[in-house]
């Protein structure tokens, strides 16, 4: 077991049209036995970074250190890492046993008996012992996934690298494997770097998550910190489903003035925006509450669409008295008067209804209008985050 | 109800009529394609006099039947058959093996300039046999005096090597297509499993390419076995290969068509045998289904 250090790593792909910077000066420290999730939208470079750690891509500049060895130029076959691929990458002509023993046969001097013993042990751990003599084509997707994990586990490597290993599973199995993978990683205590584009996987699985966008590292931290204290607007929008509501606002006196609504500042917010004239205003859907009467932080809104999910309702809102200038539809690019709120599944609202929605100042995030950098994050003072005894 | 009954009756009568037309057309094509083969086969079993007095498509009857042409043809062909096998089998196997190795190196590994090398391979496919006849004979006499080095058997070695060289480009192209179709992350997984490039070929690429080996083996065997041009140019003296031996049937024996037909069938047999032997894998390889 060992920790992994990624130090100022850059990857540039040379193309016919010039250079493409896939990874731009990224530094991450992964502690021994840590579960780190690399998350970001597709094309952000997260898989490239993982492949660089595996030695499958060259490192343009910077260093990657495993334990106390720099592994920039170490060929994959000499690295003590095991990788799980999205496609599973099983050897189709070999049995499950053959797939699992291949790595041990190639990378160790163990005798056949010892290999067999380890394969059986790992297969039992993954509950695939009864599949050992089958070929991958005779297995279901979920079983193939288990074999792919088993093949990584049996190697007992210093680091697990996982490239969207659950992406090809159906939702139910994915949720189940998520839990199982976490438990497995905890039991084995192997340093794990897990790549995904799915923010739910990132939030639920990682000890820490590293958010990448366009080759640049946006934030590294534990999931709740990234959720409540995002470093910038990208992280705030990427983590959390449905996404945070954003509005471009100008600062006029002691109020923020948007295209469609005004928001009076409290002392804490005023202090944060001092010296600026424009900010991006952010509020998470679950922080918007319904009921009460209109006030300076409570607005009359019309319910546009309700998406019931059982445990919660996702409610699309538009400011009341809004004319149709911005279109009465819920679009990808939110119009400046549209909000998304989530409320408990037991509260019922219907499309067309008029309600009062409160945006509590303590839950407001503010970001720099041009750089997107966070200038004020929500207060957690009156939120109970103490562990359950 | 009555209308549906009508249509069923109608269908019952019209569909078979269409079918009859279809089967008739198919039968006509079968006859058309098999007639030359049947004629050849009957001719090979006829005596010389029967051949001259009967219509070629009719089967031999009674004392017209003879197997003599087969024995005669076999007697004259069998040394040539042996020489052909001796050079075709290694040429086929090695062109497929080298082709698969080249394709592996050009597909699974990454290095600068591999596209250029691949283009040179592809260009090799399009060089016509006729264009290289003179340089080829010069090569195997002035540059590498193969008969001087190995004696008369050198002819067969020269022929074999020439066919290997000529076969590598097309084999490489076929294997490259096959390797490109495989999951590339599987090869990456194997590297991370600690396997060397050589081991990955031996334990993963090679076993997965077996259907493609069947395709190239059949293709190359047929091509090389049936080749006359290179043989005529490169082979001197006693090591006549089977196509040369068969060709000599037409010259010396005027009008002995029964002998010629029997000889042609004997010559064709090995290629048919190879088809039958690798037919299943061939179908797999052609349809692109790996393991």
**Model regions low in confidence, pLDDT < 50 over at least 5 residues of chain A:** 325-332
CATH secondary-structure class of the largest domain in chain A: Alpha Beta
Number of strands of chain A: 21
Q: What would the principal axes of the Cα set say about the shape of chain B?
A: flat
Largest sheet of chain A: 6 strands, mixed
Label the structural class of chain A: alpha+beta
Q: Give me the count of strands of chain B.
A: 0
Number of helices of chain A: 9
The name of the CATH topology of the largest domain in chain A is Rossmann fold
CATH topology of the largest domain in chain B: MetI-like fold
**Class of the largest domain in chain B, according to the CATH hierarchy?**
Mainly Alpha
Termini separation of chain A (Å)?
32 Å
H-E order of chain A: EEEHEEEHHHEHEHEEHHEEEHEEEEEEEE
Question: Which class best fits the helix and strand makeup of chain B?
Answer: mainly alpha
Short description:
With 389 residues, chain A is α+β, with helices and mostly antiparallel strands. Chain A has 9 helices and 21 strands.
What does it look like?
The complex is a heterodimer of chains A (389) and B (291). With 389 residues, chain A is an alpha+beta fold. Chain A has 2 domains: 4-236, Rossmann fold, CATH 3.40.50; 242-323 and 333-376, Beta Barrel (OB fold (Dihydrolipoamide Acetyltransferase, E2P)), CATH 2.40.50.140. Chain A has helices at 46-53, 96-107, 112-125, 141-154, 171-188, 199-205, 223-228, 233-238, 267-273; strands at residues 4-15, 18-30, 35-39, 61-66, 69-70, 81-84, 159-163, 191-196, 208-213, 216-221, 245-252, 255-258, 262-264, 278-283, 289-290, 298-308, 312-319, 338-344, 354-358, 365-368, 374-376. Chain A has a 6-stranded mixed sheet with strand order 6-7-8-3-9-10, with helices on both faces. Chain A has a 6-stranded antiparallel sheet with strand order 13-12-11-14-20-21. In chain A, helix 3 crosses helix 4. Chain A is elongated and about 75 Å long. Chain B is mostly helical. Chain B has 2 domains: 5-64; 69-288, MetI-like (MetI-like fold). Chain B is 80% helix and 0% strand. The termini of chain B are far apart. Chain A binds chain B through residues 54-56, 75-79, 81-83, 85-87, 89-93, 102-103, 106-108, 137, 151, 155, and chain B through 183, 185-186, 188-196, 199, 203-204, 207-208, 290-291.
